[in-house]
Here is the input.
Amino acid sequence: MANTQKLNDRYKSFIDDLKKDPAKLKKFLRNVNGPDRRTLSEQERDHMLTIFRLIDPVESSNNQRSWTDVYEHAGKIYHVHYVDFETIIEEVLPDDIQ
Here is the structure.
């Protein structure tokens, strides 16, 4: 019973710490919920590349080995990475954790 009480006390202390620090709470929730991006499947990638050919990127960067374009479309943000002969598109998931 004493171990259960210690565990409950540690749990309450942990929760109280998270409530006091919003940045720590947000980081904890992001760790629990998973990554802030998802890589599009091949079919989704091909569809989005067609759309991206019709609009200009919001931002572009180059680090000598890869090229990254950032697009906004339908209220979502996409990062398009051109690496060697491969194109990878990541959708930035909304950070709706309040």
About this structure: Strands lie at 37-39, 59-62, 66-73, 76-83, 86-92. The chain has two domains: 1-34, 35-98. DSSP finds three helices and five strands in the chain.
